[in-house]
Design a protein that fits this description.
The chain is mainly beta and 213 residues long. It contains two helices and 15 strands. The strands form two sheets. Strands 1, 3, 4, 6, 11, 12, 13 and 15 form an eight-stranded antiparallel sheet that branches.
Length: 213
């Protein structure tokens, strides 16, 4: 009887834990956000600068497809040390969920070989074979890569990017994926903007919140 009650108690505790809301990052954002966008408006509006075709609001989310490294830049300047949270998903099995951080707010690809103005974070790039944080050059030798996890089509992911003291940490659903330590960090003028980007895959972004640190 005692053993049966212990088993029942363990089961109830497990169910209670499953019902708790997920905590995506250990670094809590105590202050109000510097910027927030839930993409509920019919258009992007003046807070955003598009640098090419392929971005629109769809069903309460930002949808990008075929951007070919023409980012959707947030026009607001941001401090060097920030935390960026957002949700992202794609129906495609090719993955390729991409954003830029610490950029200049205007740059876009002029040729097939794109040199970014900031750091490029890629989840499931190169036909969903690897993920990366790249300093300006996606194909540069100094990029940091990870083979797992890979993008699951239709799965909604929560991204957290924390940029502080020259390091950029990327968390996915609360799990650290990569941390890029830069000896000569991209800070100051020309590196104060965030962007959603992409190549060909259709990708959805939602629930953006940016906090200062």
């Amino acid at each position: 009887m005692i053993r049966h009650r212990a088993s029942l108690l363990a089961l109830l505790l497990a169910l209670a834990c499953e019902e708790q809301p997920r905590t995506y990052s250990a670094h809590a954002a105590a202050r109000p956000p510097l910027f927030r966008d839930d993409f509920e408006s019919p258009t992007l509006g003046p807070a955003w600068r598009t640098t090419g075709a392929g971005a629109r609001i769809e069903a309460g989310a930002l949808r990008v497809e075929g951007l070919q490294n023409h980012p959707v830049w947030l026009t607001r300047e941001l401090p060097d040390d920030i935390r960026v949270d957002f949700d992202a998903w794609t129906p495609s099995d090719e993955g390729d969920i991409k954003v830029e951080i610490a950029g200049d707010g205007v740059s876009a690809a002029r040729t097939a070989s794109y040199i970014a103005s900031g750091y490029v974070v890629i989840f499931g790039g190169w036909n969903n074979s690897q993920s990366a944080i790249a300093r300006r050059r996606e194909h540069g030798r100094d990029r940091l890569t990870a083979a797992a996890p890979r993008v699951e089509p239709g799965r909604r992911y929560h991204f957290t990017l924390v940029r502080q003291h020259g390091a950029l940490r990327w968390e996915l659903d609360g799990r650290e994926i990569l941390t890029y330590d830069d000896d000569t960090p991209l800070i100051g003028a020309g590196h104060r903007h965030f962007a959603f980007s992409g190549w060909q895959s259709p990708v959805y972004f939602d629930n953006l919140a940016i906090h200062g640190l």
